[in-house]
Recover the amino acids of this structure.
């Protein structure tokens, strides 16, 4: 009997060691500097609040940590879309002036491999910027670093929340340098192929409500020779 | 007993790693695609939106009945010429397979109508519609970009409003029909 108890205790300790090893694995570190932060091309910056209650509308399956907003919005409960969220929000330029409307669809990805530090979300953005046109941004995001540095500390906190400053890039592809693929639709963006990046600055997170205070940012690298966006853009 | 404990630790590490490797962290539900072959090549797939039950958002300035009811459209004049709608989209078997956004805006004197269809298990489609309507109530647009399964495709999509004529009590008012015709990108080269 004592050998069985010893074996079971060993199993539990082994599983705990494995979990701790995954969470604190130094080989699964953040990718570091974003390629768009060192580009010499013009970069458009579009900012938005990542807090659902600041959006025009935010919805998901209704059972997730982030609550749909407004309360009576239709929820995505059907099997095909229950791992998906949809958000429409105001996009602001670098001077915090309204720049346009952004719509984001995100779905948890089957490419998620926690063993490799990949908590992947497939997402697309549609952004309409009046007087300039529309953009389609295709990307997959890796939330592993965010989970490790914000989510898990919040779980470990006795108050079930986290406060601090976390700044990180979420976009992990499909571009070779971990950038998003951006296509121009209408207006002066029409026909343009660009690269982009979504990043997040979080300052408060709650286990019950998800992000409490957080700002998202889309950076879009304009092709050389496009000079129409001086007013709305910021060079990074 | 110490040896048993150490063996337990090793087994625990191996079991946790094996479980994480073998058990999918995410398993998207898939509806079988209903695709037919076009006469001139390419695949045709039909989607639709039942109105009003599949509407998630109807946002525009000064709407008398915005959806959802408590939604507040931003008052900024920058957004005065934009109308955004979010929908659930269904396949030909009437099963929900994704979500979609339709944006209509006026860019100077030009009308912009864009669709984004997001099918979680498959990928996304971005279609820029031509603003002028065609005979039969159609509007057609080109596939501007796609992701994952749709990333290397070319083609077009039509939209059409089809009012309900069934007269049934719980029938929708009508449906927005979306018909995609896509071919592999290499075939056009």
């Amino acid at each position: 009997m004592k050998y069985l108890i010893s074996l079971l205790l060993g199993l539990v300790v082994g599983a705990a060691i494995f979990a701790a090893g995954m969470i604190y694995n130094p080989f699964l570190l953040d990718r570091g500097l974003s390629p768009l932060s060192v580009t010499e091309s013009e970069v458009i910056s579009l900012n938005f609040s990542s807090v659902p209650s600041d959006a025009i509308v935010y919805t998901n399956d209704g059972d997730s940590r982030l609550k749909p907003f407004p309360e009576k919005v239709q929820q995505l409960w059907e099997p095909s879309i229950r791992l998906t969220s949809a958000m429409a929000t105001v996009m602001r330029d670098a001077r915090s002036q309204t720049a346009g409307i952004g719509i984001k669809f995100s779905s948890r990805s089957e490419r998620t491999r926690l063993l490799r530090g990949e908590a992947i979300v497939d997402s697309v953005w549609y952004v309409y910027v009046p007087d300039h046109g529309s953009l389609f941004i295709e990307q997959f995001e890796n939330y592993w670093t965010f989970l490790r540095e914000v989510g898990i500390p919040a779980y470990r906190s006795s108050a079930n929340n986290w406060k601090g400053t976390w700044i990180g890039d979420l976009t992990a592809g499909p571009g070779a340098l971990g950038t998003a693929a951006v296509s121009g639709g209408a207006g002066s963006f029409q026909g343009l192929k660009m690269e982009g990046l979504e990043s997040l600055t979080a300052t408060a997170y709650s286990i019950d409500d998800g992000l409490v205070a957080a700002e998202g940012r889309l950076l879009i690298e304009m092709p050389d020779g496009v000079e129409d966006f001086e007013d709305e853009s910021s060079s990074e | 007993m110490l040896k048993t404990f150490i063996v337990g630790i090793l087994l625990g590490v191996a079991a946790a790693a094996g479980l994480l490797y073998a058990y999918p962290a995410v398993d998207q539900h898939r509806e079988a695609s209903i695709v037919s072959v076009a006469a001139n090549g390419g695949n045709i797939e039909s989607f639709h939106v039942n109105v009003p039950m599949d509407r998630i958002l109807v946002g525009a300035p000064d709407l008398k009945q915005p959806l959802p009811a408590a939604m507040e459209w931003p008052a900024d004049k920058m957004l005065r010429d934009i109308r955004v709608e979010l929908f659930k989209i269904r396949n030909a078997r009437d099963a929900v397979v994704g979500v979609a956004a339709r944006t209509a805006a006026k860019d100077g004197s030009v009308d912009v109508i864009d669709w984004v269809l997001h099918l979680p298990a498959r990928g996304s489609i971005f279609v820029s519609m031509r603003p002028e309507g065609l005979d039969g109530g159609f509007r057609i647009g080109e596939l501007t970009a796609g992701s994952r399964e749709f990333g290397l495709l070319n083609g077009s999509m039509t939209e059409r409003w089809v009012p309900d004529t069934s007269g049934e009590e719980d029938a929708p008012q009508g449906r927005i029909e979306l018909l995609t015709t896509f071919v592999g990108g290499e075939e056009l080269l």
The longest helix of chain A spans residues 2-23.
